[in-house]
Design goal:
Blueprint lengths: L1 E6 L3 H9 L5 E7 L10 E4 L1 H9 L3 H7 L1 E2 L5 E3 L4 E3 L7 E4 H11 L5 E4 L15 E4 L6 H7 L6 E12 L9 E4 L3 E8 L3 E9 L9 H11 L5 H9 L5 E8 L7 E2 L2 E3 L2 H4 L8 H18 L2 H30 L5 H12 L1
Parallel strand pairs: 1-2, 1-9, 2-8, 5-11, 9-16
Antiparallel strand pairs: 3-7, 4-7, 5-6, 10-13, 10-14, 11-12, 12-13, 15-16
Helix pairs in contact: 1-4, 1-9, 2-9, 9-10
Bound molecules: flavin-adenine dinucleotide.
């Protein structure tokens, strides 16, 4: 059996472990987080990612716990809709549910090692066989194999998000773009409301306090749409996840001798297209299928060929979307153009 060591048992790592041929590979996953995420948040799952979940055999379970997007609009800060596109085929899935169901799909003979991997020694068990970096945007595998120039990049933005135990208010769904700030309201599972916000902030970069960032958000959105103020009034620090946004640099290749990257470790992008977790799933399923059917070297080359360009385009599109959604000086012009386009 060939040895595969996966650092990171999040979305990408679990999906890869679930997809690998259990008779061919001896798989170990290292994960530092002791259980499921404690603050509930939601992820948009686009059709391609749902295709990957179908390959792993868990799409029906995901659909059963997910929420269908509907009544979404792109709005100005006051809440007036510029456009109300019909969003088809996108599911909102709780991150905890996704991780739980991916975890349940991992074969029993995959070894689970608990605890943080601090570095990757040149010899020993981690250096034997293929090492997979599925350890997110601050990847220790990327640092070890791609060097310090590949460290994560800090953006000037903070993101906060949470779920409220109430349905989305009528005519409130969608994304609100203001001056240097955005707010999103979408349906979450079990008839609840998922909300998220982003704006420029010097808080952090590590350990951003939910209470402080929530207080800042209430000030910033105070003059905006009533639906946004309502959501922020109901949000509590305990049910809010706050963090600075980091991205991974463009690496030129996701493969080095003995190592390969998947998910945010490979292409961590700004969250404005809602694609990072989706691409992590597609990476994992693509890599698993290639490793299951081809010699390792050929599988890695083909994985790089299939995934590098597409994720590079998404990173660029995502960062362009961030600049547009969080425009400051260009905001009046952006709003005028969007109003014209809507007509
Ligand atoms: C505000 C926000 C909203 C988003 N919304 C969406 C959305 O709607 N749709 C979407 O598709 N994506 C979305 N994303 C992006 C998505 O969260 C990420 O792309 C996704 O989590 C990447 O999955 P991953 O498994 O690659 O990395 P991660 O989720 O970061 O998982 C990495 C795992 O590795 C573990 N780990 C890390 N380092 C070590 C170590 N040294 N030793 C052991 N374990 C380690 C971590 O504990 C973690 O479990 C959003 C992101 C943000 C910030």
């Amino acid at each position: 059996m060939e040895a595969i060591t996966i650092i990171g048992g999040g979305i990408a790592g679990l999906a890869l472990a679930a997809g690998l041929d259990r008779d061919r590979f001896d798989v170990t996953i290292h994960e530092q987080r002791p259980g499921l995420p404690t603050v509930e948040t939601s992820l948009a799952m686009w059709p391609e990612a749902q295709g990957s979940l179908a390959v792993l055999g868990i799409l029906p379970e995901i659909r059963a716990v997910g929420a269908t997007f509907g009544g979404m609009a792109l709005r100005d800060a006051a809440g007036d809709a510029w456009v109300s596109p019909e969003v088809r085929g996108v599911l909102g899935v709780s991150r905890a549910d996704l991780i739980r169901l991916l975890g349940a799909a991992v074969p029993r003979n995959v070894r689970r090692a608990e605890g943080k991997v601090d570095d990757i020694p040149a010899t020993g068990p981690l250096a034997a066989g293929l090492l997979v970096g599925a350890d997110g945007v601050h990847s220790v595998v990327r640092r070890a194999f791609w060097g310090p120039k590949a460290n994560a990049r800090l953006t000037p933005y903070v993101a906060l998000r949470g779920i409220l135990p109430v349905p989305v208010e009528a005519n409130a769904g969608g994304e609100y773009w203001g001056r240097g700030q955005l707010f999103g309201i979408t349906p979450a599972s079990s008839g609840r409301t998922y909300w998220y916000a982003s704006f420029r902030s010097e808080l952090g970069p590590a350990g951003v306090g939910a209470a402080e960032v929530l207080a800042r958000a209430r000030e910033r959105f105070d003059a905006g749409a009533p639906a946004v103020r309502n959501v922020l009034e109901q949000a509590t620090p305990e049910s809010t996840l706050a963090q600075r946004i980091w991205t991974a640099p463009d690496l030129g290749s996701f493969v080095r001798p003995g190592a390969v990257l998947v998910g945010d470790a490979a292409h961590g992008m700004t969250p404005n297209l809602g694609r990072g977790a989706c691409e992590a799933l597609v990476d994992a399923v693509t890599l698993a299928e290639l490793l299951n059917t081809r010699p390792v070297g050929e599988a890695l080359r083909e994985y790089n060929r299939q995934r590098l360009l597409r994720t590079r385009l998404l990173r660029v599109a995502s960062s362009a979307m961030t600049r547009l959604a969080l425009a400051e000086r260009a905001q009046p012009l952006r709003d005028r153009l969007l109003r014209l386009a809507a007509r």
